[in-house]
UniProtKB/TrEMBL annotation:
<dbReference type="InterPro" id="IPR011343">
    <property type="entry name" value="DeoC"/>
</dbReference>
<dbReference type="GO" id="GO:0016052">
    <property type="term" value="P:carbohydrate catabolic process"/>
</dbReference>
<keyword id="KW-0704">Schiff base</keyword>
<dbReference type="GO" id="GO:0009264">
    <property type="term" value="P:deoxyribonucleotide catabolic process"/>
</dbReference>
<dbReference type="Pfam" id="PF01791">
    <property type="entry name" value="DeoC"/>
</dbReference>
<dbReference type="InterPro" id="IPR013785">
    <property type="entry name" value="Aldolase_TIM"/>
</dbReference>
<protein>
    <recommendedName>
        <fullName>Deoxyribose-phosphate aldolase</fullName>
        <ecNumber>4.1.2.4</ecNumber>
    </recommendedName>
</protein>
<dbReference type="GO" id="GO:0004139">
    <property type="term" value="F:deoxyribose-phosphate aldolase activity"/>
</dbReference>
<comment type="pathway">
    <text>Carbohydrate degradation; 2-deoxy-D-ribose 1-phosphate degradation; D-glyceraldehyde 3-phosphate and acetaldehyde from 2-deoxy-alpha-D-ribose 1-phosphate: step 2/2.</text>
</comment>
<dbReference type="InterPro" id="IPR002915">
    <property type="entry name" value="DeoC/FbaB/LacD_aldolase"/>
</dbReference>
<comment type="similarity">
    <text>Belongs to the DeoC/FbaB aldolase family. DeoC type 2 subfamily.</text>
</comment>
<keyword id="KW-0456">Lyase</keyword>
<dbReference type="GO" id="GO:0005737">
    <property type="term" value="C:cytoplasm"/>
</dbReference>
């Protein structure tokens, strides 16, 4: 399959990107807007468990938290999705049946991507058959760094063909791509290959999500939208633990893409540990008092 020449992706001004992030982080937000932003961020979380010791019981517990994040605040929004390994998709699907919460699954030999294509496709097919609404795939970073862009493009396109109407989130693993320029090229490639979302990281490699990296990816989404009229979503994942950080990311999205992207259909946080701090800050804004962390499960 012939793809665009990614050597033509625009050069990235590292200093300019980092200065813009610093300026946006200086914005102040009033209390009423802060509560709305915190609740919006909560609605955009993908609660995730991706450990070798994951069990059906752990996934069921996570799904209960997804449906009711705070035990004494029933009016709060639910999270966007629960993300699990393919083997546990059927457990999450059953636990979330009848809700609007999506079932997401990592696939394609997550997190390394080091498997033959036929294995990656079979894993993706099984996740969809078991009830996944969304698939988070990893690209083959080694192939990308060697300049084999057609290989990476065709791999994403093949996974998208199996995913079909479900959402495909393409994980770039930006911590391994070395430069902002590579991150921009990988973002452009993934979107042209069929990504519904582009995602920074697996959460298994450091650095994971950073605001400058996210800004580079948001600008790629903006430019792709201007060329095609097609909205692609964004998911920073890994290392976002505090509500203040989440609000800073929402400001980045609003300033770069506009309010249409401030919706779970187009922006997600891959940061389960963020949930409890969002809940703490929401209750603090509403009552003036911080609750004990004992009120929340450590999912």
């Amino acid at each position: 399959m012939n793809i665009p020449d990614y050597s033509q992706s625009p050069p990235i001004d590292q200093v300019g990107v980092e200065e813009r992030v610093a300026r946006l982080n200086s914005r102040s937000i009033k209390k009423e807007s802060k509560i709305k932003a915190l609740e919006m961020a909560l609605s955009m979380v993908d609660l995730t468990t991706l450990e070798g010791m994951d069990t059906a019981g752990k996934v069921i517990q996570l799904c209960q938290k997804a449906k009711r994040p705070h035990p004494y605040q029933p009016d709060l929004p639910t999270v966007a999705a629960v993300c699990v390994y393919p083997r546990l998709v059927s457990v999450a699907e059953k636990a979330l049946r009848g809700t609007s919460i999506h079932v997401a699954s990592v696939a394609t030999a997550f997190p390394s991507g080091m498997a033959p294509l036929e294995v990656k496709l079979e894993e993706t097919r099984q996740a969809i058959e078991d009830g996944a609404d969304e698939v988070d795939m990893v690209i083959s970073r080694g192939e990308f760094l060697e300049g084999n862009y057609n290989y990476v493009f065709d791999e994403i396109a093949a996974v998208k063909e199996i995913v079909g109407k479900a959402h495909l989130k393409v994980i770039l693993e930006t911590g391994e791509l070395q430069t902002y320029g590579n991150i921009r090229k990988a973002s452009d490639l993934a979107m042209h290959a069929g990504a519904d979302f582009i995602k920074t990281s697996t959460g298994k490699v450091k650095p994971a999500a950073t605001q400058p990296v996210t800004l580079v990816m948001l600008e790629a989404i903006r430019d792709y939208y201007y060329r095609t009229g097609h909205m692609v979503g964004m998911k920073p994942a890994g290392g976002i633990r505090k509500a203040k950080q989440a609000i800073q990311y929402l400001v980045l999205v609003n300033e770069t893409l506009g309010g249409n992207w401030l919706h779970p259909d187009y922006f997600r946080f891959g940061a389960s540990s963020l949930t409890n701090d969002l809940l703490l800050q929401i209750v603090k804004q509403k009552t003036g008092v911080y609750q004990s962390l004992d009120y929340f499960s450590n999912d």
